[in-house]
Amino acid sequence: MSEFIHALTQYGFLQTAVIAALLASIGCGVMGSYVVVKRIAFIAGGIAHSVLGGMGAAVYFGFEPLHGALPAAIAAALLIGWVRLNFRAQEDTLISALWAIGMAIGVMFIAKAPGYQANLMSYLFGNILLVPESSLWFMVALDALLLVIVGAYHRQFLAVVFDEEFARLRGVPVGFFYLLLLVLVAVTVVLLIQVVGLILVMALLTLPAAVAGHYVHSLGRMMVIATLLGAVLSISGLALSYGPDLPAGPTIILLTGGVYIASAVLVQILNRRRARKMARQNT
Amino acid sequence: MDKVIDIRSVNFSYGTTPTLSGIDLQVEDGEFLGIVGPNAGGKSTLLKLILGMLEPQSGSISVLDGNPRVARRKLGYVPQYPSFPRDFPISVEQVVQLGRLGLWQKAGWWQALMPSRVSRDDKNAVRSALEEVEADDLARRQIDSLSGGQLQRVLLARALVSEPRILILDEPTANIDQRLEGEIFDLLQRLNERLTILVVSHDVAFISHYVKRVACVSGTLVCHHTDEVDGAVIQELYGEHVRMIAHAH
Predict the structure, then answer these.
(1) In chain A, which residue ranges form alpha helices assigned H by DSSP?
(2) Are A213 and B89 in contact (CB < 8 Å)?
(3) What percentage of residues in chain A have a pLDDT greater than 70?
(4) What fold characterizes domain B3-238?
(5) Can you give the residue ranges of every domain in chain B?
(6) Residue A211 belongs to what domain range?
């Protein structure tokens, strides 16, 4: 750990990585909480994996992969949202199809990209140490967009994630807010891809929020705790990976997964103890 | 008296199976109407048509002199089963506050600029609605800690907080015991002094104590005054012999 702290004061790329992790945590905490309470992790997974299509196309046509990721993520979110709103009965199959097709398009483009062959692994599993400084402003802009929209419409989002039928009866344009929510999830996916890549993005999107949900009982608090937890876990994972030269993305995910499992077990034990205590008091 | 709901010759089917045929129903302002009938007879479908959640294949539905989709912001609705997960991290107060959505035109430009703002009027309305259903002590509780009866009162408060003209309830007492059922219907009777109420129930004898008219729905719809509802009417409605037990609440 001391080696990491020493390196952090010396190397600009490590400082950039830490700032990227902090910026990604904001999206992870805010949108991850919506994904967890609305139970749309599968939909978010579909969006995340379809993004490879856009990244592959960007590489093929000579652009930065990230510049292809954002439009691809938004297109995937709108397409998957439209499927969910109009073809609910076949939702699973259609989202699985879009998931696979998006990835296949990406692999095809990358395989046929002229000149330098991009490293597929870095898109799939990310490399936070290679985040360029210029990407930080892009991440700041995405976070700002996300916070402004969620801040302005948090009650409408709450109504849609809590009870779509009632929201519709109250005149809330449920379809619009549902699609907007998925677009914001797509924006978050793009933020998180920089940290852990598109395969592992689901863990960072859902697990900090799920751990927060073990201990707090309001969506607002869940977002704050999940953001802080996401930041602590990302930076700790980065620090742990630095000394033994492990890949940062998988280290962050293993740490996050470990914390989630430990928290789930702890909550089970606490609930059982509480139930036994209540039973004793009632007898 | 003015008609607040006017349904004429409505037919509705899910796919190829007809659910409601030739439905005619007029509900007057201030009425307390019971809707009864066998399972899968179309009671909930009728409510969804009135709420504008479904469109009839033929016929016309007018609610508060307009299209149900436009009128539904002036309707309060309590579903039979809550369509949200009980473990959702939300407090009673927040649930009821959501019932104020859709009233922003009333609140003016400030609300239009900040659509998520909870105004002082909203907070007062939430407090009054919870007091009215005698659930003000539950405001800070999480919904997963509520009993069936408490949740039903909260859903009723959520419907009332938008100051509706018509209150529509789909078997509001299906999941609670008889004592609480009586309390809920006593409350509805008080609310009927200022609201038109439509309530679906499975217990004809019980609601007959409260409502003035009963709409019997079983694919078709026939209305009876409560004093006309006897064994023959019930048997005809359910299409088979119905075991009737005299009981008082």
Answers:
(1) 2-10, 12-38, 41-60, 65-86, 91-112, 120-125, 133-162, 164-169, 174-215, 219-242, 248-282
(2) yes
(3) 98
(4) Rossmann fold (3.40.50)
(5) 3-238
(6) 2-282
